[in-house]
Amino acid sequence: MSIKRLIQSQHLAVYSCAALMGWASPCSAFTGEDAVALQQQWAQAKYQASEEKEEAALAALQEKIDISLRKNPSQPELLIMQAVVLATKADDTDGLVQGLSDVRAARTSLLRALKLLPPTEQALANTLLGMLYYKAPPPPLSFGNNKQAASYLQKALALDPNGLEDNYYEGDYLNEQNQYQQAELFLKRALNAPADPDQPAYEQGIRQEIQAVLVEVKNHNQR
After folding, report:
1. What is the DSSP letter of 121?
2. Longest Cα pair distance anywhere in the chain, in angstroms?
3. Is pLDDT above 80 for 189?
4. Whether 167 contacts 189, CB under 8 Å
């Protein structure tokens, strides 16, 4: 479930922070279109920008999200996008300390988002938490934990069994656990998920990632 699909599922066409928090005080409105635009900017930075430009684009995007969160602190879509950007930066950085700090901050944002989302709309946050838990180093260096990862990923699949992201990360996790036959099933299911024509950079980028993992899995299955 992408940010856009999350918004659509919650009917968040326009969601002001006052409505979210039950306050009557004025604050800037954060719309569903804003969240979709943030995802588009992230996808362009991750999948289309050069390595040098990606770093600058992600830093600018993080600053934009941080500013929006100060105005809309209880907006789960913003928290999820904050986590996505932080996780991407952690994956790209050469600095161990900064990378681990970004991963921890991403987990914190996702846990906050879970508390704000209705139980039926927690698939994306659970998927991303699962991804963090199987990709992060284990203690004492970080919080990586395969059992926790499996738990979050299964929660996501129970909520969104045909989703692109849920099936992709389940397949990727199973690949890392050397469960190649099961991994292939989930990766193929991810590729069969409907594409979003309004997110071409994201759709192209993530499907290329899935294809790359699927090739790796198929090679193992053919041995």
Report:
1. G
2. 64
3. yes
4. yes
pTM of the model: 0.87
Cβ atoms of 125 and 113 within 8 Å: the answer is yes
Handedness of CA 219, 220, 222, 223 (dihedral sign): positive
Q: Write the CB contacts of 57 (distance below 8 Å, at least 6 apart in sequence).
A: 41, 44, 45, 49
DSSP 210: H
Task: Say if residues 172 and 206 touch (Cβ distance below 8 Å).
Answer: no
**3-221: CATH, from 2.60.120.280, 1.25.40.10, 1.25.10.10, 1.10.3210.10:** 1.25.40.10
22 CB neighbour count, 10 Å cutoff: 7
Residues whose CB is less than 8 angstroms from the CB of residue 99 and which lie 6 or more positions away in sequence, other chains included? 89, 90, 91, 93
Across the chain, where does the E strand assignment appear?
A: 14-16, 29-31
Question: 46-81: per-residue pLDDT in tens?
Answer: 999 998 899 999 999 999 999 999 998 999 999 999
Cβ 34 vs Cβ 19: under 8 Å? no
Q: What is the pLDDT of residue 220?
A: 95
Give the dihedral sign, CA 30/33/35/41.
negative
Residue with tokens 């926790």: 148
pLDDT tens digit string along 69-119?
Answer: 999 899 999 999 999 999 999 988 878 889 999 999 999 999 999 999 999
| Sequence spans of domains, the chain | 3-221
Neighbours of 46 (CB within 10 A): 22
